[in-house]
From TrEMBL:
This is Aldose 1-epimerase. GO terms for biological process: galactose catabolic process via UDP-galactose, Leloir pathway; glucose metabolic process. Gene3D superfamilies: 2.70.98.10. Its EC number is 5.1.3.3. CDD domains: Aldose_epim_Ec_YihR (cd09022). Pfam families: Aldose_epim. Keywords: Isomerase. One of its GO terms (molecular function) is carbohydrate binding. The keyword Isomerase applies. It comes from Conyzicola lurida. The keyword Isomerase applies.
Length: 307
């Protein structure tokens, strides 16, 4: 029986410094598992299941939400399919159920490609690629987007990984977020303002225990140092997993759920989602990238582990 996420691409790397493995799926190009020295750093899910809460999937050609699935292009309304019915939004792009094709593969890396074809709500053709590369102490992810249309195309990209550190209860991890602003939202999680986190419960720069957090929030003010911004989860024993994002990712979403399937039941999980554009960017323009015909855009993020 074929897995609902298609073919599973297994990456392995072994050196004197340690070993790592990752499994990437054909459908949605999701990061299904990542282990370093036998320690799970992402929330895994079985091959016979679809990604719970979008675990690890690529979000393109926009991340996050579009209010009512409607945006304006040259003064004309564009109507996207409503893919978050409970809040009447379009969410997380157009490739969530797309089977990617392999364009390059080695023992330690795989490059997958998928095309966004012109359709109602998004009349553009955009070729996308994503490369997962195991490196010492972690994983590097490279996204490429090329406008194959005859007019400028608006694009954004994100990813939806859930993190853990082995068997450490997620509640006991400390989340540090390199972000100085938070998007205040309405009850449909559409931004209405961007406010400083200083002096609020949303200031995660010095770290807060994940078990005390209830979040589905986008953050800005992500300031890179030496070309990258770093967020982290730290276990009580000092082990740490970091998510870094390059300068093309000025936003990050943090999502906690107490209903993530794990260990035969439901439990707490936390997603840290690097994003090149803010929620509702097709309407606000916040972080939206307009690619000229033939233009190719490359962005990167990755995961690091220290024991």
């Amino acid at each position: 029986m074929r897995a609902p996420t298609g073919e599973q691409f297994v990456l392995t790397r072994s050196t004197a410094a340690g070993s790592s493995t990752a499994i990437i799926t054909e459908v949605a190009a999701s990061l299904r598992t990542l282990q370093i020295d036998g320690v799970d750093l992402t929330e895994p899910y079985p091959a016979e299941k679809t990604p719970p809460f979008g675990d690890g999937i690529v979000l393109a050609p926009w991340p996050n939400r579009v209010e009512d699935g409607i945006w304006l292009l040259d003064g004309k309304r564009q109507h996207l399919d409503i893919t978050e019915p409970a809040r009447h939004n379009a969410i997380h792009g157009l490739l969530r159920s797309t089977a990617y094709r392999v364009t390059d593969q080695s023992e330690t890396a795989v490059t997958l490609a998928a095309t966004v074809y012109p359709q109602h709500g998004y009349p553009f053709m955009v070729d996308t690629t994503v490369t997962y590369q195991l490196v010492e102490g972690g994983l590097t992810v490279t996204h490429g987007l090329r406008n194959a249309s005859t007019a400028a195309a608006p694009v954004g990209v994100g990813t939806h990984p859930f993190f853990r550190i082995g068997d450490v209860p997620t509640e006991d991890l400390v989340l540090r977020l390199n972000a100085s602003t938070r998007f205040e939202t309405d009850d449909r999680l559409i931004p209405v303002a961007e406010n400083p986190v200083e002096g609020t419960k949303y200031d995660l720069r010095d770290g807060q225990r994940v078990g005390d957090l209830w979040l589905d929030d986008a953050f800005g003010g992500v300031v890179p140092v030496d070309g990258e911004s770093v967020h982290s989860l730290t276990a009580p024993d000092g082990r740490r997993v970091e998510l870094w994002q390059d300068e093309s990712h000025p936003f990050v979403q943090v999502f906690t759920t107490r209903k993530f399937p794990k260990d035969g039941g439901l439990g707490l999980a936390v997603a840290i989602e690097p994003m090149t554009a803010a929620p509702n960017a097709l309407n606000t323009g916040a972080g939206l990238k307009w690619l000229e015909p033939g233009e190719h855009w490359v962005v990167r993020w990755g995961i690091r582990y220290s024991a």
